[in-house]
Amino acid sequence: MRPSLKNALLLIAACAISTGASAHTGHGTHSLMEGLAHPFGADHLLAMLAVGVWSVSALPARQAWQGPATFLLALVASAMLGASGVTLPYLEHAVALSVVLFGAMLIVAAKPLPKALGLGLIAAAASLHGLAHGAETPATGFAGYAAGFLLTTAALHLGGVGMGLSIRRWLTERSGTVLTTLGGSLGLAGVYLFTQV
User: Fold this and answer.
1) Has residue 23 been placed in a domain?
2) How far lies 112's CA from each of 16, 61, 109, 173, in Å?
């Protein structure tokens, strides 16, 4: 196993077993720095990496940008709703289950979903994450906080894209197995996060 893939799997495992891992509870958000740090909870981090990997693995090469772009647009739109008080029952549970969804999408990435369906699922999951982020908008205002979490989210997407490109380049013959393993690991991590909410 390549060191980069081994490190990625170790990161997923570490995130999955961490306690208090939800990105959306228990801390204040008062500045751009809080916005930058906010997405590093396991649920958001794993979802962002998965979107990047799925986009490279399931979309045509020149369209791989559409997965992260869809997520970012839906994230900011729903965060504005969340900041204005819109919420859903069991939102934290749904956010955790979005990790399970992305795991399932990686499992079937070798025989991908129709593009519109895949991007629609990404937008729906991003909306859940956005509502949760928006609900924690600091009193100092939405703009700096949103800029922070959007920058971090974009960086995590790029990390996922890098992982996906590495799998495609270095593990071409085993890419289906690798994606299935990653997807299964994400699914288990999502179930664990669901039980911790």
Assistant:
1) no
2) 25, 13, 5, 17
DSSP per-residue string spanning 48-91: HHHHHHHHHHHS-GGGTTHHHHHHHHHHHHHHHHHHTT---TTH
Residue 65: closest CA among 163, 148, 154, 167: 154
**Structural domain containing residue 55:** 3-17+30-196
Domains held by the chain: number: 1
Smallest Cα–Cα separation from 184: which of 176, 195, 172? 176
- Report the alpha-carbon distance of residue 107 to residue 90 in Å, rounded: 26
Q: Is 145 a member of any domain?
A: yes
Is 24 part of any domain?
no
Alpha carbons 138 and 143: distance in angstroms, whole number: 10
95-147, pLDDT tens digit by residue? 999 999 999 999 998 787 899 999 999 999 999 999 999 998 887 778 888 88
